[in-house]
Write a structure and sequence with these properties.
- There is one protein chain.
- This protein is of the alpha+beta class.
- The protein is built from two helices and seven strands, in the order ββββαβββα.
- Strands 1-4-7-6-5 form a five-stranded antiparallel β-sheet. It has a two-stranded antiparallel sheet with strand order 2-3.
- The protein is elongated, with a radius of gyration of 30 Å.
Length: about 180
């Protein structure tokens, strides 16, 4: 399902991909390390057949729908710029295995429509979906007690120093910062 749209023919294959965002850093000692970061958004891609006639291998929620009806519904989702639920329902599995469902909020990233003369009235959609996540905000404690009603200014005045002929950074730090 894409939102409440049941694809009439189960896609032959669905590709899931995670884009890693890890990176490599070279340290000052020339050692190379990896930094693990939060993974990127999951992407789904597949081709979906929309039969141009009522065929026995297709499944419909109510009754047969022409391919253009599916295309119109998907275009509406794209034009409304909204996230939708993508369901992969697995049922009637072999060896008496229990079925299960994968559910993800997604956006439609691309929708390509292929009509070929040798396919008759059938239409093939090439669909790319991307996982949808909203921005998460986090509350950070400042450590300042705001119940007193006023906040004390903890800033110190900036210190300036005019560099003189013969000065060097080492001596300036030592004289000005005692360090």
């Amino acid at each position: 399902y894409i939102d409440d749209i049941l694809l009439p023919v189960t896609p032959e294959k669905i590709t899931w991909s995670y884009k890693g965002q890890n990176d490599t850093v070279n340290l000052i000692n020339m050692e190379e390390i990896s930094r693990i970061r939060t993974p990127g958004l999951m992407e789904f891609s597949f081709k979906a057949l929309l039969p141009g006639a009522d065929v026995p291998y297709a499944r419909y929620l109510t009754s047969f729908k022409e391919p253009f009806v599916y295309i119109y519904e998907l275009e509406q989702i794209i034009n409304e710029q909204r996230a939708i639920m993508f369901y992969i329902v697995r049922e009637k599995l072999p060896y008496k295995r229990v079925g299960f469902t994968t559910k993800k909020m997604v956006t439609i990233e691309s929708l390509n429509v292929l009509e070929q003369a040798d396919e008759g009235l059938d239409v093939v959609l090439d669909i790319k979906l991307k996982e949808y996540k909203t921005a998460q905000s986090a509350e950070i404690s400042s450590g300042i007690n705001t119940s007193q009603g006023s906040r004390q200014d903890t800033k110190t005045a900036a210190k300036t120093y005019v560099v003189k002929d013969g000065d060097n950074l080492w001596n300036i730090c030592k004289n000005q910062l005692n360090d």
